[in-house]
Amino acid sequence: MSLSRSDFDQYMVPNYAPAAFVPVRGAGSRVWDQEGREYIDLAGGIAVNALGHCHPVLVKALTEQGNTLWHVSNVFTNEPALALAEQLVDATFAERAFFCNSGAEANEAALKLARRAAIELHGERKHKVLSAYNSFHGRTFFTVCVGGQPKYSDGFGPRPAGIEHFDYNDLDSLAALIDDDTAAVIIEPIQGESGVLPASREFLLGARQLCDKHGAYLIFDEVQTGMGRTGHLYAYMEYGVVPDILTSAKSLGGGFPIGAMLTTSALAKYLAVGTHGTTYGGNPLACAVASAAVATINTPEVLGGVLRQHDRVIAGLEAINARHGVFAEMRGRGLLIGAELKAEYAGQAREILAQAALQGLMVLMAGPNVIRLAPSLVVTDADMDEGLARLDRAVAAFLAARG
């Protein structure tokens, strides 16, 4: 097959602008393109490939399930879905799980559940949804409107009513909006797409108290922070603030598409038979892979390794900055790390990404001013060191190109 990057422009809808190279094979934290060139992957498929590429435990789970049962629909249940639900309930605050195919679908389900429960209990007036400016909760029309970034929701017609936005990490801003008509407050414990901005514990604790005061449900969107990314199975565990509903995806399947909404029995009952559904959600293939991913990630060895590797990455970024002076701040938790560019380099993160690709490195942006790293949770020290060395060369090339 002789397809190339140029075929994208011929056959695909132009909503993406992929890199010039085409990855064709991966192993661990390394990827090879069509020409056989090797790259260090510190992007992780946007915080998805939690165990790297082709991890043997996940390959084994997928292969075994692929030879057993692929799909039966939710007219029936299946053993892998039940096993995964049991794992997640045992490991979290939750008592019930709902499976879908993506983070957007998980957030859609969470928001529908919160509104449904609030309206059934208190009437139609209690339907307001509050979220932070610059948040990101998915690309369905409802979730993209809930996300506080008009650039993603403008141009698609009238927006759903009852959605308002507060300033992230600003409890006074949230307090000014929340009232007894609020059904839900949805928060990312770390704003991933908007610059890798961690919430303060005081903010999340205050949000919990405000929701309790006004009878609103607190939703934590842990699509990006969940499944070991912060060095805890879910970030809420580090903060010590428990939501009513939690959403998970990305690393949950280690690269296989799956999403989950987790909640309590008391709340789950409002999604009665027929109120919500999905054709592929909870299919045996996805659940078998996710179950293997959860069992592998939720161990002291992996979670402790994430915390250890965090310190290594921060030290590496600080060393790069000592040589080149391009970063204003390094922030994040675990292996979700953002390096914000200084004001004189504002808006130029994409140029550094392009130089990184030329150096054989895959990294991410989190907005136009932030370089984001979201590598495998089991990335080796050797791969991390080599990746940081390539980033160093990329930054040097970026500065040289500026003259």
UniProtKB/TrEMBL annotation:
CDD domains in UniProt: OAT_like
CC terms in the record's Gene Ontology section: cytoplasm
Sites where the protein binds N(2)-acetyl-L-ornithine: 139, 278
EC number: 2.6.1.11
Keyword Metal-binding carried by entry: no
Cofactor note text: Binds 1 pyridoxal phosphate per subunit.
Transmembrane segments: none
Family membership: Belongs to the class-III pyridoxal-phosphate-dependent aminotransferase family. ArgD subfamily.
Name of protein: Acetylornithine aminotransferase
The organism of origin for this protein: Chitiniphilus eburneus
Upper lineage: Bacteria, Pseudomonadati, Pseudomonadota, Betaproteobacteria, Neisseriales
